[in-house]
Protein: Cobalamin biosynthesis protein CobD
Amino acid sequence: MSYYVVNQDTSRLNAYELSSVTVGEVAKNASDGIVAPLLCYALGGIPAALAYCFVDAADTVMGHHDDMYEWLGKIPAFLDDLVNLIPARLTAWGIIIAAMFSDANVSMAYLVWWNEARLSDSLNAGYPMSSMAGALEIEIEKFGHYRLGAGHRHAEPSDIPRAVRLLYATATLTVIGLFFLITFIHLVQP
Structure:
């Protein structure tokens, strides 16, 4: 079952590797599951949030590289990349700022984000994952593809709750920021 959650075979991974994969998923899901839908809601209401969720779900179901969905999955994958351009980067900044309010390293979150965000296979996932890797001072690695936070210690199971706390702090900052954005939008509209 976990293969479908993280989109890679986890059956042969050790505790460090599973921790790395899990922390990476927490970072990506902060963007895909919290920041992006809330941003869409703030900018376009329920229809925009539902449209985002539809695109994200279509990419999850059809956007993978296999024989059955290769061509059918290109459209949702492209749309998912497009709609997540801004949310992924905002999430990275949210994680960096949230690191100030937790037991995380703010400067390392920024440095790893700045230097390694584009190393991921994904157009967008590297941004929140690299800032999370730096904040926790760990490596997040998809074996054979990329390593974010290279040179830091391997992830440990104890890093997962730390990542979740950063996710909560990022979500809180997002809600506060979007509250001010919505308020500003309503103030400037006639």
In short: The mean pLDDT is 90. The chain has one domain: 11-182. The radius of gyration is 17 Å. The first helix runs from residue 2 to 6.
